[in-house]
Design brief:
The complex is a heterotrimer of chains A (310), B (419) and C (396).
Chain A: H1 2-37, H2 57-63, H3 66-97, H4 104-112, H5 119-130, H6 136-144, H7 150-153, H8 163-187, H9 192-200, H10 205-234, H11 237-242, E1 248-251, E2 254-257, H12 262-271, H13 275-300
Antiparallel strand pairs in A: 1-2
Helix pairs in contact in A: 3-8, 3-10, 3-12, 4-8, 8-10, 10-13, 12-13
Chain B: H1 2-21, E1 34-40, H2 44-60, E2 64-70, H3 76-85, E3 92-96, H4 100-105, H5 126-130, E4 133-134, E5 137-138, E6 141-146, E7 149-153, H6 154-159, H7 176-186, E8 194-197, H8 202-211, H9 229-242, H10 259-264, E9 268-273, H11 278-283, E10 288-291, E11 305-311, H12 318-328, H13 331-341, H14 348-353, H15 359-368, H16 380-395, H17 401-417
Helix pairs in contact in B: 2-13, 16-17
Chain C: H1 3-53, H2 60-70, H3 72-96, H4 102-133, H5 159-164, H6 169-175, H7 179-183, H8 186-217, H9 223-234, H10 239-251, H11 258-262, H12 269-279, H13 284-292, H14 297-325, H15 328-334, H16 345-352, H17 360-370, H18 372-391
Helix pairs in contact in C: 1-2, 1-3, 1-4, 4-17, 8-12, 8-14, 8-16, 12-14, 13-14, 14-18
The chains are: A mainly alpha (310), B alpha/beta (419), C mainly alpha (396).
């Protein structure tokens, strides 16, 4: 027993070794280096040799940085809207296109295709669609109602209440095809026999979906939730391309951007050359996210399906 | 299994491609001359003129050769920052005007006074030159400069009966008060037609502030003075265009169509725009004109855009670099450069030598003389990030001009200047 | 007839009438959609044709516009014919359907219409990109006055494509300067990117598939903990690693080489995670069956796991290719601009963009070219991962 398991371990390591090699060489050092940087102030020249040690000052500064905490809140909201919306859109598409349907391959390809487009191009086009006065949406609403409608005067991206949602919709439509492919592939691994057995027991479609399909797709859903969280935390390009963090709202005298997510705020710090502070922010985000992910994992693996082992 | 075959063929083709084309080195023949590397961001036409000027310079400096290397303007800051980190920077480079201060404060570019710049300093146009003036020293030479002026749609002015009989008379209003008067006549909401459209970023707002004589950063660079009374007046006037007089189209909102696009489509009668759009608008078959920006309490004014050339401390041949750059920006070469490329000269000597057929460009030359100072700070994009949200809060009616600018002043002072 | 019968008859009739009204409404929607969509597509075809046949010259734009104008009948006619054929087809099918199946017919029609609207929305960016690439400089932003939704240019030109491929006047005289300048063209950048992206995609998918197999199906001490640790590293934004990775690449003497473009990104935690989660849905019984048949570890991996996970492996391949095909910031900082052999496509495209002249048409035509290998790859891969998903999978 002990012999087989150590042989197994050796095999596992040999399978993992190419990945670990590159991970060890190119990621371990940067991870520690950026952690190390988070205890230093902004460099005074480009060589990064003359850094002054500031201890935990960067972390203390985060605690009092209103803009950061606000951006964290926006990020949470972004994640809470985009993750469920993204997963349900992908799942709906997958279930719809898993049936017998004329032109199924065409539809699958078409919905996957936007994933290959550059985020900036997508951002520009959606901005044009949403734009007041000229955009497609404004043209339609002006034709349906009057000129004085919200879509024509302010536009979805111009109002703090709707800007984030508008960004989410664009991103969900761009990304839904990717989730769809994952779900479609996983759906093939569900044995037909399980559904047939359920049919014999007289299960309804909804019951079959809830008790067979969803549990067996759970690994994929977990993947989408976790990458969704990471995506929300690193969200930057879509904001940069569509709103630049605006529109601004004044809350208690402080002006804050209604789509200024943490990733965008972090990028601004990084771009300004505040490497130390940016590193501190990203480790702060890591700690917060790890807490959330840990909860997610616990929540998701409750009531283990038969496929989740050990 | 034909699919398997396709896959195998693809893999073989890929391997063959790697063997044939994976070549990282390129042959350059050394000719004994010393190399000076010049990183620039010019386009094809500009690079051709640059190479002509280099050839002329090499004629009088036989021991040196200049190697112009084009890098993308988008990302030239990131490229230079990282290259300097490992000491692989060039001898000299052309950088955005807003980048010179960072380079100087990070101690990586040469102070030009040590090379005798004070002797020829007065040749250059004051406003562009000031972008390279940091902590009492000059660290760069302007090589290209632009500003914005007022573009107006002649058809819309004609329709509103605002085109004067006399063709030499100024069409656009001279002061902001007149501008508002004219604006009301040009605005027709039922046709989605507006007199004016503006974007909300600090650089594009500088013409407003400058026409009231309001500085953003004090002359010594030690203090943010954006909360001055003049600045408040300027911002109040800007906000009144949007909120009180309603002659602005809302182009400053996130997600709105740019002034440029609205102007091309005949929706906005007047926009601020730079000379780089002249050819484009002509291609779009527009009937447009260019005028001076209306004046505030200090008369007409505008912003400064463009680039400066700098010499890096790591170079072994600072004197030769300096010699080339002054040659490159001399009145004689500027004249060639500007006539061939339809650009505004930065050398005052070239002002008298250059004459454009295009009346619009002449108008820009006139506007350029009234250009105000740009804020020079170590991180210009951070300055924009701190000021723009506050201005937007005023435009959307959530703050008064004084409140917003006081908040902006505090933030800039804390996060940018004292940080 | 008693009253109950009358009522039933009446109900039946009104249900029938409802169906007909619904159908007529849907048919109307279909006709307008079909006319608009096919009209735009045919117009695009005519536009591309007239831009293509018009020889280069000062009046090329107007001439191409005239040619297009003269062919208005062609594209409008084609759209009308197509719409009529489609309508007749659908109406015939509907009439041939028995009353009791009509509701399901209508439901299918709604489904198709919804799917097509979805497709139009998600594919619109591609169409917009293509159309903008054909617009002459200065007219990219002009919106048609008669129909704001008509984005096909009425005066098309191939100038943008010519300039991207560097066959216009200014770049020709620049290329004549020396050997280095001659190499600075789209073809070189394209080839460089092709090499970088393909190599990276091969290696990343290979490493990730092996790693994911271990994490999903094999034993390893502290497997869960190691996996969680890997996931945690994914949460740190990649830009934090950029500067230290740049240091390392320079120390290794790789600055300005193709290796530098992708080596630091070969260890893809995202790839391992994605493949692992998919492999979790593969029943263990398949592996056990193979092991009973005497398959070695490597055989289990290549014969059982890889074919089953092929759709996802190909998806990862495509995504990795795409990542390296457009990884601008990293490739920018490791590029040696004195050597065109180290300039990749995203960086090369940025060289086009001047400081002020963000010429949309030029950028879009460059994007059209840069999307070609992705499209080819996609069309090739989609046989496996879109169609193959229904046939290839092993069912228990």
């Amino acid at each position: 027993m002990a012999i087989t398991s150590s042989k197994d371990t050796a095999i596992s390591f040999s399978f993992l070794s190419p990945f670990l090699l590159f991970f060890g060489v190119f990621l371990i050092f940067p991870i520690f280096y950026s952690f190390y940087l988070s205890f230093f102030g902004s460099p005074t020249d480009y060589s990064l040799a003359n850094l002054d040690f500031v201890g935990l000052a960067n972390y203390f500064r985060i605690a009092g940085d209103m803009q950061f905490w606000w951006s964290l809140g926006v990020t949470a909201l972004y994640g809470m809207i985009s993750i469920p919306l993204g997963i349900s859109a992908a799942l709906a598409l997958a279930l719809l296109l898993d049936n017998k349907l004329f032109g199924k391959s065409f539809f699958r390809s078409a919905f996957f295709l936007p994933n290959v487009l550059d985020m900036l191009v997508v951002g520009v086009i959606w901005t044009l669609i949403y734009a007041p006065k000229f955009g497609a949406l404004a043209q339609i609403t002006t034709w349906l109602f009057s000129e004085d409608n919200f879509f024509n005067t302010t536009g979805l991206l111009g109002s703090p209440m709707t800007a984030l949602l508008a960004v989410v919709i664009a991103m969900v439509l761009k990304g839904a095809g990717f989730g769809m492919v994952l779900f479609l592939a996983a759906l093939q691994n569900i044995p037909e026999a399980v559904y047939e057995a359920a049919d014999i027991d007289g299960a309804t479609e909804w019951q079959k979906f809830k008790h067979i399909t969803v549990p067996l797709l759970r690994p994929i859903i977990t993947f989408m939730v976790i990458t969704g969280v990471i995506g929300a935390l690193n969200a930057f390009t879509e904001i940069y391309a569509m709103t630049s963090g605006g529109p601004q709202v004044v809350i208690g005298g402080e002006t804050v951007g209604s789509t200024s997510v943490a990733g965008y705020y972090l990028f601004k710090q990084f771009d300004a050359g505040n490497y130390g502070y940016a590193a501190a922010i990203s480790y702060m985000l890591l700690i917060i996210t790890l807490g959330i992910t840990w909860l997610q994992q616990r929540f998701m693996s409750r009531g283990n399906g038969p496929e989740v082992k050990k | 299994m034909s699919e398997k075959k396709i896959m195998i063929v693809a893999v073989i083709a890929y391997i063959a491609l790697v063997f044939v084309c994976w070549d990282d080195s390129i042959a350059t023949s050394p000719d004994g001359r010393k190399f000076l590397t010049f990183w620039h961001t010019y386009n094809d036409q500009e690079e051709l003129v640059l190479r002509d000027i280099i050839k002329k310079w090499e004629g009088t400096n036989p021991n040196f050769t200049i190697r112009p290397v084009r890098i993308p303007f988008d990302g030239h800051k990131a490229k230079l920052r990282t290259a300097l980190t490992v000491g692989q920077g060039p001898d000299m480079a052309r950088v955005d005007w807003s980048f010179v201060c960072e380079l100087a404060r990070k101690n990586s570019v040469v102070d030009l006074e040590t090379l005798g710049f004070e002797n020829i300093r007065s040749q250059y146009l004051a406003a562009p030159l000031e972008t390279a003036y940091i902590d009492g020293k000059y660290y760069g030479i302007p090589d290209q400069s632009t500003c914005v002026a007022m573009f107006y749609n002649r058809q819309m002015f004609k329709d509103a009966g605002l085109l004067p009989e006399d063709p030499n008379a100024s069409v656009v209003p001279q002061t902001w008060e007149e501008f508002i008067e004219v604006g009301k006549k040009l605005t027709d909401k039922s046709k989605d037609q507006y007199a004016f459209a503006m974007t909300n970023t600090l650089w594009w707002n500088l013409p407003f502030f400058n026409s009231y004589g309001a500085r953003i950063i004090s002359e010594d660079g030690k203090k943010c003075v954006i909360d001055s009374d003049d600045a408040v007046k300027a911002l109040e006037m800007m906000a009144s265009l949007v909120n009180e007089h309603k002659i602005e189209a809302g182009a400053w909102r996130p997600g709105a169509i740019s002034p440029e696009q609205g102007f091309v489509n005949g929706k906005y009668a007047m926009v601020f725009m730079g000379p780089w759009n002249l050819a484009k608008f002509a291609n779009a078959k527009m009937d447009f004109g260019v005028g001076l920006i209306p004046g505030g309490s200090k008369g007409t004014s505008t912003n400064v855009g463009g680039t400066d050339v700098v010499i890096f401390k790591d170079t072994k041949h600072a004197a030769e670099c300096y010699d080339f750059l002054t040659f490159f920006t001399s009145a004689e070469n500027q004249k060639d450069w500007c006539t061939k490329l339809n650009q505004l000269p930065i050398n005052l000597g070239a002002y008298d030598l250059v004459s454009f057929e295009d009346p619009h460009l002449m108008m820009f030359m006139q506007q350029m003389k009234h250009a105000g100072p740009n804020p020079v700070v170590k991180d210009y994009s951070l300055l924009e990030d701190l000021v723009n949200p506050e201005v937007e809060a005023v435009l959307s009616g959530q703050k008064t001009a004084r409140e917003a600018l006081t908040a902006a002043q505090k933030k800039v002072q804390e996060r940018l200047i004292d940080f | 007839m008693n009253s109950a019968q009358i009522l039933e008859h009446h109900n039946k009739n009104s249900v029938k009438a409802q169906r007909i009204i619904l159908f007529v409404f849907l048919i109307a929607l279909m006709i307008s959609m079909s006319y608009v969509i096919s009209g735009q597509l045919f117009k695009f075809g005519v536009m591309a044709f007239s831009a293509f046949v018009t020889p280069e010259g000062p009046d090329a734009v107007t001439e191409a516009g005239k040619l297009m104008q003269s062919m208005t009948v062609v594209y409008n006619g084609l759209a009308v014919v197509l719409t009529i054929v489609l309508t007749i087809f659908v109406v015939k099918k509907f009439l041939a359907t028995g009353h009791e199946h009509r509701m399901s017919f209508i439901r299918r029609m709604v489904l198709y219409l919804a799917l097509i609207i979805g497709v139009v929305v998600v594919l619109f960016p591609f169409f917009w990109m293509l159309c903008t690439a054909f617009k002459p400089s200065g007219q990219e932003l002009v919106i048609s006055k008669t129909n704001p939704f008509d984005i096909v240019p009425s005066e098309p030109t191939l100038d943008n494509f010519r300039r991207v491929l560097k066959v216009d006047a200014a770049s020709k005289s620049l290329a004549a300067v020396d050997a280095v300048e001659q190499k600075k063209n789209f073809g070189t950048y394209f080839l460089n990117s092709l090499l970088v992206a393909t190599t990276a995609a091969f290696l990343v998918t290979f490493f990730a598939a092996m790693g994911a197999y271990v994490f999903s199906k094999k034993q390893l001490p502290y497997k869960q903990q190691i996996f969680m640790l890997l996931l945690a590293t994914m949460m740190i934004p990649g830009m934090m690693f950029m500067v230290p990775q740049f240091f390392m690449v320079c120390k290794m003497g790789l600055f300005g080489t193709k290796w530098a473009m992708f080596l630091p990104h070969l260890a893809s935690v995202f790839g391992i995670f994605m493949l692992k989660q998919f492999m979790d849905t593969i029943p263990d019984s398949l592996i056990e069956a193979a092991q009973i048949d005497g398959a070695s570890e490597w055989q289990v991996f290549t014969v059982v796991i890889v074919p089953l996970a092929l759709p996802i492996i190909l998806t990862l391949f495509l995504l990795t290719f795409l990542f390296h095909w457009s990884n601008f910031l990293w490739q920018l900082i490791v590029t040696n601009f004195e050597n065109p052999l180290s300039i990749t496509l995203p960086v090369g495209l940025a060289l086009f963009r001047g400081q002020y002249t963000s010429e949309l048409g030029l950028i879009m035509s460059a994007s059209c070219f840069s999307i070609v290998p992705i499209a080819v790859l996609f069309l090739f891969a989609q046989r496996y991962f879109i169609e193959g998903m229904t046939q290839g999978a092993v069912k228990e």
